[in-house]
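notes to self, project folder thing:

trying the whole complex as one job this time. last attempt i did each chain seperately and stitching them together was a nightmare. two parts in total, labels are on each line so i dont mix them up again. if this works i'll redo the older ones the same way
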Amino acid sequence: MTTDILQTVDWSRAQFAMTAIYHWLFVPLTLGLSFLIAIMETVWYRTGDEFWRRTTKFWMRLFGINFAIGVATGLILEFEFGTNWSNYSHFVGDIFGAPLAIEGIMAFFLESTFIAVMFFGWNKVSRGFHLTATWLTAVGANLSALWILVANAWMQDPVGCTFNLQTVRNEMTSFWDVLLSPTAINKFFHTVTSSFVLAALFVVGVSAWYLLRDRERRMASKSIAIASVFGFVFAVVAALTGDKSGAVIARVQPMKLAAMEALYDGAEGAPLTVVGILRPESQRAEGKDPFYFKIDIPKLLSIMSYRDAEAYVAGINDLIDGNPERGILSTQEKIERGRAAIAQLERYREAVKNDDRATTEEIEGLFDPATPEGKAFLADRFAYLGYGYLSSPEQAVPNVPLVFYAFRVMVGAGVFFILLLAVVWWLNRRDRLADKRWLLRLAIACIPLAYLSSQAGWIVAEVGRQPWAIQNLMPVNIAASDVPSGAVSTTFFLFLALFTALLAAELSIMFRQIKIGPKE
Amino acid sequence: MAATLRRIVRFYLEGFREMTVGRTLWCIILIKLFIMFAVLKLFFFRDPLAGCTDAERRDCLMERLTDTHKPGTQ
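result (full assembly):
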């Protein structure tokens, strides 16, 4: 039975990861391209130049293909919450459900209404109304993303809630704390701005293809002019929000930060590793240096984490073994505290079963944040509930190599995109871009690189927080439903087939339409 | 009111009629939704606690939360 539960958890995780990765192939282009289209249409609205209307309609066609293929793929993730993660869904229901419900309503009413005007409204509504619909589509799509990202951020940083012992649910105590937590704010801005960069690279790459073929030169050049500036600005903003995210992660998810840096031993004035090759875990466990080689920037990790060059950044060993000097609890201590919380839940369950009112009232007092003993119990014991389900401290460590390398892919690509977009903008402005054929080819190659970088970001965020479904409160093995692993593996392959077919359809239609180019 | 509704309906009908690439996309959307809701949701994604009352769901979760904390059971 234990083996099957483990297999179920692994299959459920694999399925969620696969569907989320596929879903995220469609989303970022929608988020960014919608704004680029709105900017182009605004130019048309202001100048009345038919060239801009034609250009807008071309990019809108590509946007429509991506939107149509990708729409509703996120619903499968919601199916999975209900079926594969039913314990999680019940445990967090109201908090997680509220943002998702708002997202559903917004996506349906805002996006579907204004997208219809955007596509069907040419020549049927006024230019101003059409432009408004285009902007509202862009805003609506990004607001939809906000609610999903708020829900995700809450899993990483569960704030604004209290645990209701009677219903065995976390309940929202402050909508604003959930919406405006530093994790949520940084996650939203980092995710959407990096999506804007991806869309800008898509426009630059497709335009570069036209320049290479010596087709649609004016459209390609003007599109690059807008997309390169848009992409450059938001690539810089993404770097800044990424930096802010690092500071938040240092406080909320120190193990994730340590894994991102493969930092085993904490240090004052900790360096940031620019590049490095990790040794296998078995060699590291024998006492060898975790890296074959690495290039560091001194003190940068301390500065990024705590805005202080001498600040102490905890390493994986500090977080596992504890570091009393730095006020860091050992994971074993957290496990004991989590088990103490679970023991109270067990007592409560027995007391309810036996109708033992004195005990139920006593334990309800412990879970009541309004009482001093409740406040202490919730902070000292219940806050570590999830640790109580770990059988060893090492289970609190995520997959370090995967997180470490994914982080470098994301950051490395992001820095490269800033440089590339600046160079492309400069050469395009001087009308010399079309001669740089190597750069045009590089710009095309950057489209898949942008997707890779975007996915790498999610790998850092999601693999880096393992083993938690909800940070510190619920590990994935408790969050998963007790369903047969065979059922989950079957749907895994069904989804793989469905999403691969959708992706193939998208690529095929998209390539065909790019070859056709803008229509008169 | 009725005239406005008629105009909205006509707006959508004409929009759909004039589609080119959109026809293929709508086919894909409809096939996708059919697979998702009529096949996957119906046959593969049944709620494991379907038919349970709130109290039964709560008891199920409480059992899960309290029965698996012993070392070695993960």
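what i see at first glance: Residues 34 and 40 of chain B are 9 Å apart (CA to CA).
need to look closer tmrw
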